[in-house]
Specification:
Structural class: mainly alpha
Number of domains: 1
Number of strands: 0
Shape: elongated
Strand content: under 5%
Distance between the termini: 37 Å
Largest sheet: none
Radius of gyration: 18 Å
Helix content: 55-70%
Order of helices and strands: HHHHHHHHH
Length: 199
């Protein structure tokens, strides 16, 4: 019996009708990724990325938003040092706040700032303004770094080459309808934006 299909159907239903319940969506996506359910026998997917692309296609919701939910879930569980997906239900932070914290943690050289923000997230007192100000302090010198800009260009080229290969197969939706070339390009652009934001 498929474990993927019930979760897939629930995720699609909630994305279409109840995006506010992002924590439950994130919990289910975490299970799909952790247990590699997208690879189960009979599945149409060969990677988790294909699964996310499919969710975006059938729900007409931006891939970047779906990735944000998934990344926010991973970030909060990482803060808790937990591998129990149900623990995501404990957070009061938003996906955007958690995504911002993830970028700050990755690039900040000030451990004290990261620890303070992390504690605020755990206490449920985090404010978007705190995260924005912290990220602005980190982002400014990075944007002025010419080497960083060059790396972004190289990264885009790498990602574009990846997509040339990635979309060499046929992706089908639940009605076995092929994605159009324009749709695939839109997916690629959204993914490249995600790469730029998250490194």
């Amino acid at each position: 019996m498929s474990r993927l299909k019930p979760l897939e159907n629930q995720i699609i239903s909630m994305l279409k009708k109840d995006k506010a319940s992002w924590k439950k969506i994130g919990e289910m996506m975490y299970i799909v990724k952790r247990d590699k359910l997208y690879l189960e026998e009979g599945s149409r997917f060969s990677s988790f990325t294909q699964f996310v692309i499919y969710l975006s296609h059938v729900t007409e919701i931006a891939q970047s938003y779906i990735w944000r939910i998934f990344k926010a879930t991973n970030t909060f569980l990482d803060i808790l040092e937990s591998d129990n997906p149900q623990d995501i239900l404990r957070t009061v932070a938003t996906p955007t706040q958690l995504e911002s914290f993830s970028k700050i943690k990755k690039h900040s050289k000030d451990d004290a700032v990261v620890e303070d923000l992390q504690q605020s997230i755990l206490e449920g007192s985090i404010e978007t303004k705190e995260l924005t100000e912290a990220w602005d302090l980190i982002k400014a010198p990075r944007l002025e770094d010419a080497e960083f800009s060059t790396n972004l260009v190289d990264e885009k080229v790498t990602a574009e080459n990846f997509f040339r290969s990635f979309f060499s197969f046929t992706v089908l939706d639940e009605n076995h309808k092929q994605f159009t070339y324009k749709e695939l390009i839109n997916f690629a652009e959204e993914y490249l934006s995600y790469v730029d934001d998250n490194g």
